Amino acid sequence: MRRIDALISRRTEDRRRVARDRAAKVLQTAQESGYRVSLVGSLAKDRFRLHSDVDFLVHDVPTSGLRAAMERLVADQFRETDIAYDLIFASDLTPERVREILDENV
């Protein structure tokens, strides 16, 4: 393996480990707060790469403060990591699209 490939591989694995740890904290805190949130996308499918982001699907119908609370929760965990994230609210999607997103992660 070339040195650059080894470096990229090491950085990718480090970034994946941080993303998994932070995502697990988000999911645990969300559950403890009574929110239903799923990890979706590349991290959930174990396809996370060096420049991947972390995707969360929020199942709850947003109340006046839910969006802000979820944003704070995720932002607090991913601050200073340089790992981007997306919050997807199921209520903003069709039921078919929600199923597609969830089925992609099986």
Any key phrases for this structure?
three-stranded mixed sheet; 3 helices; alpha+beta; 13% strand; 106 residues; Beta Polymerase, domain 2
Question: How is this fold's topology laid out?
Answer:
Elements: H1 3-32, E1 37-40, E2 54-58, H2 66-78, E3 85-89, H3 95-103
Parallel strand pairs: 2-3
Antiparallel strand pairs: 1-2
Structural class: alpha+beta
Cα distance, first to last residue? 32 Å
CATH topology: Beta Polymerase, domain 2
Q: Radius of gyration, rounded?
A: 15 Å
CATH architecture tag: 2-Layer Sandwich
How many domains comprise the coordinates? 1
| Biggest sheet features | 3 strands, mixed
Give the helix tally: 3
Approximate shape? globular
Main-sheet strand order equals 1-2-3
Weakly predicted, low-confidence segments: none
Write down the oligomeric state.
single chain
Helix content: 40-55%
Structure description:
With 106 residues, the protein is of the alpha+beta class. The chain has one domain (3-103): Beta Polymerase, domain 2 (2-Layer Sandwich). It is built from three helices and three strands. It has a three-stranded mixed sheet, covered by helices on one side. β2 (54-58), α2 and β3 (85-89) form a beta-alpha-beta unit. α1 runs antiparallel to α2 (66-78). The longest helix is centred in the N-terminal third of the chain and has 30 residues, at 3-32. The radius of gyration is 15 Å and the shape is globular.
Summary?
The protein is of the alpha+beta class and 106 residues long. The chain has helices at 3-32, 66-78, 95-103, and strands at residues 37-40, 54-58, 85-89.
